[in-house]
Amino acid sequence: MDATWDAKGYDSSFGFVPKYGEDLLNLVSAKGGCAVDLGCGAGTLTRLLADAGFKVVGVDSSPEFISLARSRHPELEFILADISDFHSEKKFDLAFSNAVFHWIDRTRQPALLLCTAGILKSGGELVCEFGGFGNNAKIHARLSEAFERRNLHYKMPFFFPSIGEYVPMLEKYGFQVRYANLFDRPTPLGEGGLGKWLEMFIKRPFEGIGEDVKSSIIRDVVSASEKDLFRCGKWYADYVRLRIRAVKL
């Protein structure tokens, strides 16, 4: 995940991301101990893990987010690091992650899971949620069509696995999966709607493309999506989430 983030803009306009992650905390069975928040962003959920009794460390590859997290939660520890290449002498009872793993390329998923297993104690748990198979399928299909009309190739910038694909990967790296659920979660996008969401989250496919063309593509996608993603005065994203709890053997 190598995007440069407008951390404050993300936090103010897309606060629903960590807000939905609060429900993921209910899947954690560990009671206290050491926890690591992988892809901690501005530290919102890191703070909640600390409030739940964990001695927690937040890890993120974005300098912008780490800076914001440290300024908001100076009493907590935050580390600037790539979670697919993160090593720690300290072993954790819990590895927690919300809305992050889908940003890691398919080719880097083995490294991610190997590192995650490596920082957990035996019996420690991984609790995570991220985009699963079919996530934002309508949006990505329309992006692909808009790129194709301009003789451009749209390369999917995310990894959205099914349960059947991801559980064997976890098992290969020493996890026993205790819970896995793939579910639809249509999500209201708030002020700025789909256009602002595209500007914030779809970055890599637009690399090397001029601003005029980018703006034109975004307008096309917004227009094509209005018929089924704009309802009762609100924009929605067709999210599908994969939620997992696994224990390191």
Walk me through what this model shows.
- The chain is of the alpha/beta class and 249 residues long.
- The chain has a domain at 7-135 and 158-189 and 238-248: Vaccinia Virus protein VP39 (Rossmann fold, 3-Layer(aba) Sandwich).
- The protein has nine helices and ten strands.
- The strands form two sheets. The protein has a seven-stranded mixed sheet with strand order 3-2-1-4-5-10-6. Strands 7-9-8 form a three-stranded antiparallel sheet.
- It is globular, with a radius of gyration of 18 Å.
- The two termini are 28 Å apart.
Main CATH class of the domain at 7-135 and 158-189 and 238-248: Alpha Beta
Going by helix content, strand content and strand pairing, the class is: alpha/beta
Going by CATH, the architecture of the domain at 7-135 and 158-189 and 238-248 would be 3-Layer(aba) Sandwich
Helix proportion range: 25-40%
CATH homologous superfamily title of the domain at 7-135 and 158-189 and 238-248: Vaccinia Virus protein VP39
The string of secondary-structure elements, in order, is HHEHEHEEHEHHEEHHEEE
Ends apart, CA distance between termini: 28 Å
**What is the alpha-carbon Rg in Å?**
18 Å
- The low-confidence runs, each spanning 5 or more residues with pLDDT under 50, are none
